Automatic annotation (TrEMBL):
PANTHER family: PTERIN-4-ALPHA-CARBINOLAMINE DEHYDRATASE-RELATED. The keyword Lyase applies. It catalyses: (4aS,6R)-4a-hydroxy-L-erythro-5,6,7,8-tetrahydrobiopterin = (6R)-L-erythro-6,7-dihydrobiopterin + H2O. Coiled coil: none annotated. InterPro entries: PCD_sf, Pterin-4-alpha-carb_dehyd, Pterin_deHydtase. Belongs to the pterin-4-alpha-carbinolamine dehydratase family. One of its GO terms (molecular function) is 4-alpha-hydroxytetrahydrobiopterin dehydratase activity. This is Putative pterin-4-alpha-carbinolamine dehydratase. Gene3D superfamilies: Transcriptional coactivator/pterin dehydratase. Keywords: Lyase.
Length: 116
């Protein structure tokens, strides 16, 4: 796990093919304060999710596109739901069946892109 309270948005994801343990609930909770307050940690600490709300379709599309561009750059891909007025982004690391540092790095980078 990366050092607590480091600049997550300044880091780069590392390829994850499994073989490492998912972050514990305590480790995930310790990283949450470094993200925008709208990120939610699943009760079982298996994913983090942020729901973006807008007054129209275009901003939902732009946010979805930003998340997709980021995912492509970092080679770490979230689950995204979007429609008129909303975009929901969920990060988890499927290879470890839970959360990894990569999820928090991408969430922090997305916060930076959308201006929190």
């Amino acid at each position: 796990m990366s050092d607590s309270f480091c600049d997550l948005a300044g880091q780069t994801c590392v390829p994850c093919e499994g073989g490492i343990a998912a972050l514990t609930a305590a480790e995930a909770k310790a990283l949450m304060p470094q993200l925008h307050q709208d990120w939610e940690l699943a009760d079982d600490a298996s994913y983090i999710e942020r729901d973006f709300r807008f007054k129209g379709f275009a901003k939902a599309v732009y946010t979805t596109n930003a998340a997709c561009f980021l995912a492509d750059q970092q080679n770490h891909h979230p689950d995204i739901r979007m429609g008129w007025g909303y975009c929901t982004v969920r990060f988890c690391t499927h290879a470890v069946n839970g959360l990894s540092d990569n999820d928090f790095i991408c969430a922090a980078k997305l916060d930076a892109i959308v201006g929190n």
